[in-house]
Amino acid sequence: xxxxxxxxxxxHAAEAGNVPLGITIxxxxxxxxxxxxxxxxxxxxAKKSVIAGLFAIISLLLGAHYLELPFGPYDIGGxxxxxxxxxxAIDWGVIAIILGxxxxxxxxxxxxxxxxxxxxxxxxxxxxxLKLLVFYGLMTVVFSAVLNNVTAMIIIGSLTGVSxxxxxxxxxxxxxxxxxxxxxxxGGLLTLVSSVPNIIVGNAAQxxxxxxxxxxxxxxxxxxxxTIALGAxxxxxxxxxxxxxxxxxxxxxxxxxxxxxxxxxxxxxxxAAMTGLFIVTIAATGAIPYVRDLGMGFVALAFAGIMLxxxxxVADKFYEAIDWDLLGxxxxxxxxxxxxxxxxxxxxIGKGLAFLIDDPGEMASAGLLAVSAxxxxxxxxxxxxxxxxxxxxxxxxxxPEQHWWAVIFGANLGGNLTPIGSAxxxxxxxxxxxxxxxxxxxxxxxxALPYALVHIALAIAYxxxxx
Length: 467
Fold this sequence. Notes:
The protein has about 475 residues and is mainly alpha-helical. Helix content is about 75%, strand content about 0%. The chain folds into two domains: about 1-90 and about 335-345, no CATH class; about 95-320, no CATH class. Strand 1 (about 75) and strand 2 (about 80) form a beta hairpin. Helix 9 runs antiparallel to helix 10 (about 175-185), helix 19 crosses helix 22 and helix 23 runs antiparallel to helix 25 (about 440-465). It starts with a helix and ends with a helix. Residues about 1-15 have low confidence and may be disordered.
């Protein structure tokens, strides 16, 4: 648990049990209303940050009236420090990782590195639809693991549309884009920093980058193969049948120029080297002196700062492109969750899930995975991961390791059940609509359900066999 947040929660942990049940139910209603509003974000025409910010204001006002919030001063390093109560509630480590990683990826993409990789793979496929699906599927998983899911979907989805149109394979667009959208959430399981729920749960459970990768890499490999195979079968994506078709496709992809987006060869290779070094440094953060004390957020911000030197005179343009809505959403969300902790709401939810959380058995972990996936499919998986992390970390005696991994699996895979389950599947649907392909909410669920059920079933089997 982060320093300030741990301090704020720890001082009043004992008081949570003294909160009257009626007050706890009142705050639970506020939390449920926030989750419902996030699920209806598009219908309300409101950004996540505005919704969460409004509920943060409501939570703090109600908390100031009904609860004994830790207003300070705080004892930090033997010194009394006055800090607004909502500042210690925010997990600044998570904010730093998201901000630094987003800036780094945005600047690095200007080198043309990601587009170069994608077009090279298209050429290697020779324009064969099945090979292209395999390559794009693998690329989606890798990009989702290294970048964020939304960025990966935008890059690969856009290239998929251009490639298939040039190849005269527009009829396969729906299958490609749907499979890629689902694979972003599979790729999101590969590393600790691949998705925000991973960061939240991983930090709470003190799972290292290397441990996370080693534990889940086999699942990601199997799930990727199964997803691509199922997609090829359900959407009729097959290899080119005749030599004439193969030759024609090769001539078409030969016209793609991977060097179009490269402004400077030096900057291109510098970006490639920095990307590799970034991944290695993030992976080894816990073993590097001084850096391990500063954390992964420092690493992400430091690499972003180094890459920004290339655009030092127009760095403000990259700051404008930062997803401030996402950062504002996280900050407000952490405030809401902090207040819910003091209102004993998480304790109430924990009691409701006690039959699963307190049971150390494998079936309980499987049940927790299924429940997590179900809830994350109809609302944002970030509040879910944050709430369950707080519940698990405060449970005595300590919960089995399987429970932590169950939440990680459920929070990521639930996004494949519905188009609102994750931002990347929503982006995939947006790209599908952009190309004039009709796909309703129910249509997405109907087409994605076979994949999602297979993913969850594989995850449960993996949890039982390997943890």
